[in-house]
Amino acid sequence: MTVFRNVVFIAAIAGLLSGMVMAGMQTFATVPLILQAEVYEEAAGGHDHGSAHNMPGMEMSASATAEAAAPAEEEEAWAPADGLERFSFTALANIVTGIGFALVLVAVSEMAGGIAGWRQGVFWGFAGFAVFTLAPGLGLPPELPAMPAADLAARQVWWIGTAVATAAGLGLIASRNSLAFSLLGVALIVAPHVIGAPQPASHETPIPESLHHQFVVAVNVTNLIFWVVLGALVGIVRGRFTGTAKSLRDSFA
């Protein structure tokens, strides 16, 4: 029970701070691009967002705050108002997401001996970025409103499978047990992309290609910074509260 409490405590602090950082970055990097896309969406007569949401970790929660108006002939769904209300919901969603990813990061890193300091945390952050953003994003790039998407369930299955395969592959490569394990790790990382991500029937969209490119770059940059900050914070908070203890089991006595 003590170990669980310690994991949750560290994850809560690191996730809270990194989620706030992500919310600030999205305000200036991704939200303006989403608002631009909504203009194109409204001009095109609306779009069904139920099939076009990004998967977690690709754009974190910005897509959740990017709900545009429904078609005029349909009843308009509730969405946070632009300004403070929208930022508040975005920040809350990012904090919750940050704590969730922090729980995963702390739990997995403790099984490998724990993160000893912010420098080691940065490398764990790079791994988290590769698993939850980079690898899935190669097949399912972040989407803006009014962009077509494949079936949501199929995308979720592929996204989760890619994240799991990438994490397992990186773990095998990092273990350095043998060349065979390293080759198996590479095969696991490549396999989801050989299978291929689900694609929509048509890629026709009113969104300019340049706007989508800017959005993909912004999403990847903000997520990279988020993961680096999260990993570093986990290392700092863990070192601060564990002191000379070698593991969380021995700390918080």
Concise summary:
The chain is 66% helix and 0% strand. The protein has helices spanning 2-29, 31-43, 84-111, 118-139, 152-175, 179-195, 209-242.
Notes on the protein architecture:
The structure is a single chain. With about 250 residues, this protein is an all-alpha fold. The protein has one domain (about 1-150, about 200-250). Helix content is about 65%, strand content about 0%. It is built from seven helices and no strands. The longest helix has about 35 residues, at about 210-240. The chain is globular and about 55 Å long. About 40% of the residues are buried.
Count of DSSP-assigned helices: 7
How many E-type strands? 0
Task: Return residue spans where pLDDT drops below 50 for at least 5 consecutive residues.
Answer: 47-53, 60-74
Helix content: 55-70%
Mean pLDDT across residues: 83
Q: Please provide the ordered H/E string of secondary-structure elements.
A: HHHHHHH
Give the overall form. Answer: globular
Please give the oligomerization state of what you see: single chain
Structural class: mainly alpha
Q: What's the gyration radius in Å? A: 20 Å
Number of domains: 1
| SS strand fraction | under 5%
Keywords:
globular; 7 helices; mainly alpha; 66% helix
Layout of SSEs?
Elements: H1 2-29, H2 31-43, H3 84-111, H4 118-139, H5 152-175, H6 179-195, H7 209-242
